[in-house]
Task: inverse folding
């Protein structure tokens, strides 16, 4: 919860900064132009290894964040284990905030991939412990993907960039990395308790 509040406060500062607001039009154009070559797929449409800009980072994050939100919303209703339900509520709250921020930055939500749709179908069909395990596996997979995206961006981003949007994105990615690692560890711990 502390990490969600910290990320939300930092992101709110990022979004309300006059400099960030002045840059929004430019990054919206950059985001739109970067989507023209990526059709209607989620993470498959983004070459993770080539993520270098704030707009590319947002494009790479929104697909997995959306899937995490949808699966977590389902888990809030279907989880049989109280701790899994609590984790799902925590993820729902966090991904709702993340999605709102990304949408405010004019990041288009891509269509779900075949893999994402298969995960959703598996969760819809599962019950009890089978559901809890499938949900946690989806979260582990999703958080592993998110960590790969953030790590790639931090490895590729221009660390000497003076553009406020790029600097803020880099700082946000640094915060996100520790939060994603923590969530990944929590999901793995929950899964080991259920197995």
Result:
């Amino acid at each position: 919860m502390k990490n969600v509040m910290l990320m939300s406060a930092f992101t709110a500062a990022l979004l309300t900064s006059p400099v960030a607001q002045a840059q929004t039009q430019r990054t919206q154009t950059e985001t739109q132009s970067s989507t023209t070559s990526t059709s209607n797929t989620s993470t498959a449409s983004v070459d993770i290894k080539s993520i270098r800009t704030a707009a590319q980072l947002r494009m790479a994050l929104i697909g997995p964040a959306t899937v995490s939100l949808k699966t977590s919303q389902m888990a809030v209703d279907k989880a049989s284990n109280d701790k899994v339900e609590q984790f799902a509520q925590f993820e729902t709250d966090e991904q709702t905030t993340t999605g709102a921020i990304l949408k405010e930055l004019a990041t288009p939500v891509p269509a779900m991939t075949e893999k994402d749709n298969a995960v959703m179908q598996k969760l819809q069909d599962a019950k009890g412990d089978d559901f809890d395990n499938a949900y946690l596996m989806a979260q582990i997979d999703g958080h592993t993907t998110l960590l790969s995206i953030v790590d790639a961006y931090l490895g590729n981003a221009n660390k000497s960039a003076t553009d406020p949007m790029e600097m803020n994105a880099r700082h946000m990615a640094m915060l996100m990395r520790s939060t994603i690692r923590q969530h990944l560890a929590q999901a793995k711990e929950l899964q080991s308790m259920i197995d």
In short: Residues 26 and 76 are 38 Å apart (CA to CA). The radius of gyration is 17 Å.
